[in-house]
Amino acid sequence: MAKGKKKKSATGGSTIALNKKAGHEYHIEQRFECGLALEGWEVKGLRAGRVQLKESYVKILHGEAFLIGAHISPLTSASTHVTPDPTRSRKLLLHKSELNRLIGQTERAGYTLVPTAMYWKRGRAKLEIGLAKGKKLHDKRATEKDRDWQREKERLFKQG
Predict the structure, then answer these.
(1) Is pLDDT at 55 greater than 80 in this prediction?
(2) Rounded CA gap, 159 and 100, in Å?
(3) pTM of the model
């Protein structure tokens, strides 16, 4: 077994970062995979696993999708001629048909776009974004109650 083996995600690549808060705050109805336009120092930061998606979101401006608020920490050994901005807006690479569909859903139906996971696929960084609607407080409580009940059922089956 190799030392330092990375965790594999459902999509086949190794996971860089997950946004667990998105599942708690939103009903995610559909997921899309998209690429990211990154700079060299950002790729090095991703390889080191220095990324945080917790407070980030996706915004569509002028017919293009952008990841806003994601924090990619630069390595200390970054080049001297580059001034890294850890929270800059990063362009998302989507097909035109997917982009048109997302624009329609977010403008008309009241959906929002949240990043759910970032992973490697064939050596390229990919971002999974979810088309989501916000949960109300009672929805969050019901989800928590269901999760606790599932955990309790597992305990009961294990004992008896």
Answers:
(1) yes
(2) 52
(3) 0.73
